[in-house]
Amino acid sequence: MKNYPILISAQQVEQRIVEIAEAINAQFKGTSPVFVCVLKGAFLFFSELVKRVELDCEIDFMTISSYEGQQSKEIKYIDKDFSHLEGRNIILVDDILDTGKTLHFLFAYLQQFKPKEISLVTLLKREGKNPYNIIPLHFGFEIGNEFVVGYGLDHDQKFRNLPYISKM
Question: Is the dihedral of CA 27, 134, 42, 115 positive or negative?
């Protein structure tokens, strides 16, 4: 496995996940939200986050893709019935808020199921580049334009297993 420079250490990621979970526990106290993981990139972040959530919650998953290598391409997804989300608070968990194109698509897709509210939580948020003006409820770290891998993020399906965020 190639060694790329560490941008965000495993310890920093873990600490930030604890902080986000604590904030979610306080904000959603007394509710039963549905956490929806955007696969594949968010799976590690999602797993560590929901382990720390102390709410009566449900979890669900959806698969979507918009990258080939380092290039954003057309959005591809698996159609799924989320009718159980009607009237519920959804906490959508994704790996990165980049341009917002994919998340804009996901918000529109989930709205058809008439949820009470959709909140976004991402591990990373790219500075600048968000023409859809999507604002996450919480995000772990803001990064620049470097292409990153690790902690679920990949390059051609590789490097997801790194316990830290690395720039290529």
Answer: positive
